[in-house]
Amino acid sequence: MKTRRIDNYGKINRDKILSFRWDKKNYKGFEGDTLASALLANNIGIVGRSFKYHRPRGIFSSGVEESGALVTIGSKDRRDPNVRATTQELYNGLEASGQNAFPNVNFDLAGINNYLGRFFAAGFYYKTFIGIPPLEWGKGTAIWMFFEKFIRKAAGMGSASGLPDPDTYEHAHDFCDLIVVGSGPAGVAAAIEAAEKKLDVILVEQDSLIGGNQLAENDFDNSQIKNQLENLGIKIMTRTTAFGLYDNCVVGLLERVTDHISAPNVNMPRQRFWTIRAKHIIVGAGAIERHIAFNNNDIPGVMTVNASKHYLNRYGVLTGKRIVIATNNDSVYETANQLSEAGANVTVLDSRTNLEIETNKSFEIRKGYVPYNINGSKKIDSLDISKSETINKSETINCDQVLLSGGWSPAVHLLSHRGVKPKWDYNNACFLPSDTKENITIVGSSRGLWNKNDCIASGIAGTTDALNRLGLSKTNYFFPKPGGWKNPIQPLYEVKYKKSRSKSFVDYQHDVTTDDVRLAHREGFISVEHLKRYTTLGMANDQGKMGNIIGLSLMAELLNKEIPEVGTTVFRPPYTPVSIGALSGRNVGKHFRPLRVTPMHQWNIDHGAKMIEVGLYQRPWYYPKENETLSDSYIREASTVRKTVGICDVTSLGKIAIQGPGSTEFLNRIYSNGFSKLQVGKARYGIMLRDDGIVMDDGTSWRLAENEYFMTTSTGEAAKVMSWLEELLQTRWTDLNVNVTSVSEQWAGVSVAGPKSREVLNNCVDDSMVITNNNLPFMGVTSTFLKGNIPCRIARISFSGELAFEVYVKSDFANTMMDLLWENAKKYDGCLYGLEALGALRVEKGHVTAAELDGRVTIDDAGLSKMASTKKSYIGSAMRKRGVLKNNDREILVGFFPTNLKETFNAGTIVCEKNNIKGQGIGRITSVTYSPELGHWIGLGFVKGGLDKWKDTNLVGADPVRNKQMNLKVVSPHMIDPKGERMYA
Amino acid sequence: MIRINCPYCGERDHSEFSYGGDATINYPSLDASEKEWTEAIFFRKNIKGFQFETWHHSNGCRMWLVVERSTITHEIKSVKPCHPDLQKVVKNNK
Fold this sequence. Notes:
The complex is a heterodimer. In chain A, helix 4 (185-196) runs parallel beside helix 9 (452-469), helix 16 crosses helix 21 and helix 19 packs across helix 20. Chain A is elongated and about 115 Å long. Chain A contains 22 helices and 47 strands. The mean pLDDT of chain A is 93. In chain A, a hairpin with a 6-residue loop joins strand 3 (48-49) and strand 4 (56-57). Chain A is of the alpha+beta class. Chain B is an alpha+beta fold. Chain B has one domain (3-93): 2-Layer Sandwich (Folate-binding fold). Chain B contains 2 helices and 6 strands, in the order E-E-E-H-E-E-E-H. Chain B has helices spanning 34-42, 84-93, and strands spanning 3-6, 10-13, 18-22, 50-56, 64-70, 76-81. The two termini of chain B are 27 Å apart. The model of chain B has no long low-confidence stretch (mean pLDDT 93). Classes of the chains: A alpha+beta, B alpha+beta. At the A-B interface, helix 18 of A face helix 1 and helix 2 of B.
């Protein structure tokens, strides 16, 4: 195979040869190549198959707008699909393959789709799956589900590896005065001007080299510019894409750290996701050359004119021998000169009839001619051309390449991210950026400036604009006017060709043709947003960078409107695709979210605890002995608590110190029950409501001194309650003299529960008199010392229904406390118990937790009406009896037993009447456990009308998800010791 | 990313803050009628343009703030503490 590489051209390093594999064959390229330039140099024309029709596709461009050469890089768990070959730098050992083809891109069996095109036009799915008349065969979800997997396989791009990503990614942050996006002449001029004015500047470039489109010039050398930028202290970030602009001058960057290295250092991240907070943003993102729609304009060998200039001058690849350039503007002539100088036979078709142009006369210019059809399938054989857009007298030119330039589209994407709509410029046939009030300035060809001096001037003006807006100067400036070509551009988007099965592509990547746009119009999808969604124009991962304007112009023509009246769709971030790995950074696996542990975490593990996650907390779940299962273990633990004594880590409860002269009044307002008469040395269980009368949280508050309380909250609601208290004190009750402090991390808490708990504690406290029933009655609180002079707080609080104490010490003493308590508990055959046993004990007692208090439940629903004071007003008191909350058929807390005591059931079961098993039933089961005390399964839940209505009725528990059904009876939620005699012991 | 200029901590990302709600609501007294509370809780304006809203610097100084923000552009005109005494302190520091 002959190489297309030519001597004396390009900036590649010919001393450094790189080997790579393409579709399982070995090839060679040079350092400085992209995969695309290396493939072209090796004369590989077909690099992929198209999305729907499986047509052979080649390389269309030399940059991010590429919509043909999407390839898969790497293998196994490093397989990366849909990579643009035009931006993938070549490295030694690179492995790449074509996509969407079987067995390969040269011979693809699904190429048959090309001939079935009329079945796959826009709206194919919508039409096919509404059924075929008269019986509407194929209607409905089931048939779609069946066909979906085949359709998805046939249509589409590369496939993901499906394996865990072995690479690491980083999140990084930076601040600067000015961030400049793009290192073309405008961006560089802006950055230099700003750095000279003492601004802190970051210059971002998506390419591996700075220079922008100047890299396509044969005499361009960026080393001097680079030195100058570095000497001015400008931070240059290459291989970095500004993919999105966000509020307040925040810019998202993706830095590709190792994607161009064959054997990267394992300590380097593959990519870095940067969040830059700038004071001003200058965007010099350049412009993108458009193609022209005509029949078979996608045959491999079609390319933009500017791309071939890149391949020639940057990579030393002459992309064709007999080249036809079709254009409607002046930008192609320098390229035409250079291609013919490099040895190609060049013909230029210029759709304009009147034009003055200076060339080196080495090629023919056919004024007033346009291309209308390419002959060939896997490569170009010849091109049919015609005078003007009416095809009557046609001619055929033999050629192997067709280069297109339908005009240039400024890259207005980043400004579009900020919601700024671009405005249409008739003179230059393109959208130009509109002004914005935000600190964002657009410079260079992104403003529609076509020559270099104008771009440089706009860069300097852009920095002056930035300095003025930042209040650092008040200098007059002006931007050069858009344009810069000698002859005006003549709009040319499509050359029509009436022949059956003709396909002229608007959006290469999604196989959207001009006929699809016309179909959308015929069927009423005329808004650009509808056009986009109906045809998927511009929805591929190139986001319509090349084709969008062509689609819009066709729709405008069909509607007899101008392009600005039709409008444009909104470009959204990211500008180019960002990998999910980069978005998640290091927040993967164990680090997906923060981990909270209690101060006795290691102690618990050392004593055999199996842990469970509760919110962010790791809590002891159960403490199995030898071969015990979870159920063996929790049943033993719960029984031990009822029989002797158990110890449970309750540190994860929220703890808030409430201090100040207004504390009592404060608690009295936030809790539904009275707190004004709570004595020092006593604790009280309290319920907090939301403004709308629904239960927010429950917990206890301990009065430690006249103006000091210690509040506990549930584990899950701790943060919310803290914020709520702060909100009330800082926004509503600003006259209340109260201070709230979160002390959740400062105190370690443990529950000592069971008939022997007082005896255990007797051995642990300095002075056993303080915990006698007289000195520390039920709900009593004392501050005292554990043995070893450890200060502690003890409250006689019971969640288990047994005689129980909660003991709190400073977190540093947690392990000492655990050692002390455990040593003594063992003497009474006590146990350590975890969350599962805690749950069993509280369900037996009918105590509610987050499973019941789910944000829909009122105090009355929870059977806690007694907790709602009638003697005072409090948060939620006005609203708790409103409208639907006072209905008689609300679901009320009850207990459930299986009718057949040998049966089990699960939380989530729907409770129904016997002959009416459907829908949401009449209630639900929220918590279920085996009760060691009762010897069978029990549950807590809600049922409409409560115990009184259903106590003698057999109900049905329906559990369709687990395919279970059982008979249930409703009982009081207080399933054991309803009078609480044990707690008061 | 909205940047909020916390009077105590300086300019920070909005991810450090939690959104509260409408800062112009005058909550009725606790013994006010159900009707007054209903008005205050459920009948809210959907403002297009600048509105006063509360934000909690939950991953910072824990101050509740009144932020004057445009619901169209996210432009922030002013930020001050909700608590009047804290407003005075911040002013005196400037």
